[in-house]
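Subject: complex prediction, re-run

Hi both,

The earlier run crashed halfway through, so I resubmitted it with identical inputs.
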Amino acid sequence: YGTQSINENGHLTIGGVDTADIASEYGTPVIVYDIALFRARANAFKETFRKAGIRAQVAYASKAFSSIAIYEIAKEEGLSLDVVSGGELYTATKAGYPRERIHFHGNNKSYEELEFAFEESIGCIVIDNFSEIDLIKEISEKRKQKMDVLIRVTPGVEAHTHSYITTGQEDSKFGFDLKNGQTDEAFLKLYQHPYINVLGMHCHIGSQIFETESFRFAAEALMTKMITWQKEYDFICTVLNLGGGFGIRYTEEDKPLEPSAYVKEMATIVSSMTDKYNYPIPEIWIEPGRSLVGDAGTTLYTYGSSKIVPGVRTYIAVDGGMSDNIRPALYGAKYTAVTANRMNEPHSTKVTIAGKCCESGDKLIEEAFLATPVEGDLIATFCTGAYSYSMASNYNRLPKPAVVFVENGKHQLAIRRETYDDIIRLDIPLSNVESGEV
Ligand code: LLP
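This time it finished cleanly. Structure:
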């Protein structure tokens, strides 16, 4: 993937940096981000919109991996930023993110979180439900402050990995139902409000999607609604946000499409409908998360111990696991791995790579093919850039790994490894009560 290669010592290199050097300098487990690949992915989306002559915003859905350093890179690449909590918004402010490019999502934004968004004068709030409409009205009136908003809807399309289905009514906790009048009701509550400026509509139809039809269907459904608002209320939406969900290759079974395939599909439906109904072409916004950071991330582990279950399998255990990547345990997600310090040796030993957490399900890869394992080997699992660190936990009080960025032969710490003191930083010993400190 990306800038990965093998050097003269038979070691895996990323961004021109030897992974064995990263492991010895920063320890393991460590997540290494190939920043050139992140930039290339961001550019591929932006360029395809530019070439197609479509006004667009590409927002990084930062729930996939949120940190000040990645926000700094996203900012450099001219991306907008999708945040989903006060915590992500706070991180964005600390990264000096241009506030007008921040979009705030979430199905239960608190009063404080919304007020924080107003305080920061962010680019837009994606309104999810009726309670939020009330809160935003209250805050904007109290502050006499304008806010751009998108209305999030569930268009009744469910994207699956290789296909999609349409449902009359989608059972989702997010957004207003497009088919049963909820969306119109939300629009009517918002569009004439003195401080609320409805930019348009938003939907997100799923994640790790490998086909374009579901986006076409969603775009068509949203455009249809926009066209009825033009007819009935003389109201024009200037933004159509079609969310994220573009699939990536975790294993050879996955067949991702080029960004251009999705962009073309979106452009085709939008231009045919705007032509047909003489509607001004809206800006298209998208929100990729996984497809920007997923394959840019590689996790390096050290192999410590093993267990043979005769006739069944050999487990090799590494120094991380579900605490730094819960996706295999949670979703049965599949990954590939290599022996990073012996890349030129045949990878023909079948093993199960297990983590070190006290849970039988803590297996990172059920069936991995590695060089004949030797304790101390450096094991690299690929495509761990999205929803790994961001979903990491301190289960078993394991410290969260370090995160290192590499680019052009240089490496830099982006998140330091947690220490044991970090682990206990919120603990309050009962003995403090006796000493009168509480
Ligand atoms: N926009 C919205 C409104 C979303 O809810 C999401 C993801 C995205 C954009 C970005 O989707 P992406 O391009 O990354 O597929 N934890 C799961 C994925 C959860 C996705 C949640 N929403 C996983 O590890 O597979």
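Residues 298 and 382 are 5 Å apart (CA to CA).

- K.
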